[in-house]
Design goal:
By secondary structure, the protein is α+β, with helices and mostly antiparallel strands. It has helices at about 5-15, 20-45, 65-80, 220-230, 250-260, 280-290, 320-335; strands spanning about 55, 65, 85-90, 95-100, 110-115, 125-135, 160-165, 170-175, 180-185, 190-195, 205-210, 240, 260-265, 275, 295, 315, 315-320. Bound molecules: 2,5-anhydro-1,6-di-O-phosphono-D-glucitol and manganese (II) ion (3 copies).
Length: about 325
């Protein structure tokens, strides 16, 4: 049987669930189209003069790569005129981007990390685009959208996903009814379903963590990793593997397909200090992981329950195999 295209999958989903609105379908189509263009740009690499850094820094003090800015612009341009959005926010922009008055406005809010894993761009390894869709609060109708309107817990996301630009370009999507993977068929320019509904395989003894940051870990994280490092003589009775790509998208994708656990814990020494951003990295990934039968917490509590206080708020992230993620939280609560 021919694989379903993304378009057909969403139209059938719309008919089946009666919940997926045509505006949300168009929004996802638009994001997916922008990801095709980003994929094309990344694929050119040095030949397209898209590699390297700009002189600028983003709001979090990171040096921006050319592709961080190119991908941000592509996503803004693609999503501005469709009429389904009220505003957007991104890792690469200090504040929100409202839909200009020359275009009609819709009820959705889109957040994105235009290029995740930026440090991998110039060496030709996998990077991705992460996105999250919220609905603007009803109270916002008829007035200008503010940052405050974005401050909703991740559990309210109506869709989330990522594109991964690797050996193939893939799109992994949830509309709240399971997780599906689509592969970009470059010859016809269509996304075709190649896997799903994804279910995280349990019991794969693999973790992904930046070991060089161990001084930042809490006693609970240290206990969890130390036990796994004991291998077959430890409580897990198995030798573990470690994987770390420097692209959250790639590490999370491997976990969705093969199992295991991803950890980027908060810095135990400084309250509030963490690497990953809640609204456009942790939340969309947490929704995908939960939809695939896994769990996601900040070392203690469920990520999707956190009420954000700022667009660029950072959070500790532990996600993947449900039993493992719950073990980390149990160790965290015991240590309190
Ligand atoms: P970004 O490139 O969007 O700034 O995000 C990078 C993130 C994430 O993708 C990855 O897991 C982590 O940073 C890598 O951190 P290290 O540099 O500590 O490996
Ligand atoms: Mn960055
Ligand atoms: Mn990122
Ligand atoms: Mn990024």
């Amino acid at each position: 049987m021919k694989p379903l295209t993304l378009t057909r999958f969403m139209i059938e989903e719309q008919r089946r669930s009666g919940v997926l609105r045509p505006e949300l379908r168009l929004l996802i189509e638009t994001v997916a189209r922008a990801c095709k263009t980003i994929s094309h740009s990344i694929g050119k690499g040095a030949l397209g003069e898209v590699l390297g850094s700009l002189g600028s820094e983003n709001v979090q003090g990171e040096v921006q790569k050319k592709l961080d800015v190119i991908a941000n612009e592509l996503l803004l341009e693609a999503n501005e005129w469709g009429g389904h959005l009220a505003a957007m926010a991104s890792e690469e922009m200090e504040t929100i981007h409202r839909i200009p008055n020359r275009y009609p406005k819709g009820e959705y809010l889109l957040l994105f990390d235009p290029i995740d894993g930026s440090s991998n761009i110039d060496v030709g390894l996998s990077v991705g685009t992460i996105f999250s869709v919220l609905r603007a609060p009803a109270s916002a109708s008829g007035r200008e959208i503010t940052e405050e309107d974005f401050m909703q817990p991740g559990a309210t996301q109506v869709a989330s996903g990522y594109a991964i630009y690797g050996p193939q370009t893939l799109l992994v999507l949830t509309l709240g009814t399971g997780v599906y993977e689509f592969t970009l068929d470059r010859e016809v320019g269509a996304w075709k379903m190649t896997d799903g509904p994804l279910k995280i395989p349990a019991g794969n003894c693999e973790f992904a963590i930046n070991m060089a940051r161990h001084k930042q870990w809490s006693p609970a994280i240290t206990r969890y990793i130390d036990e796994r490092m004991e291998g077959e003589t430890g409580p897990c009775a198995k030798d573990y593997n470690m994987r770390w790509t420097g692209s959250m998208v790639a590490d999370v994708h491997r976990i969705l397909k093969r199992g295991g656990v991803f950890l980027y814990p908060a810095d135990h020494r400084t309250p509030g200090k963490a690497r990953l951003r809640l609204m456009y990295e942790a939340n969309p990934m947490a929704l995908l992981i939960e939809q695939a039968g896994g769990a996601a917490n900040n070392g203690l509590d469920r990520i999707l329950d956190i009420l954000p206080t700022g667009l660029h708020e950072r959070v500790g992230v532990v996600l993947g195999d449900k039993a493992e993620v719950e073990t980390v939280a149990a160790y965290g609560h015991e240590a309190m």
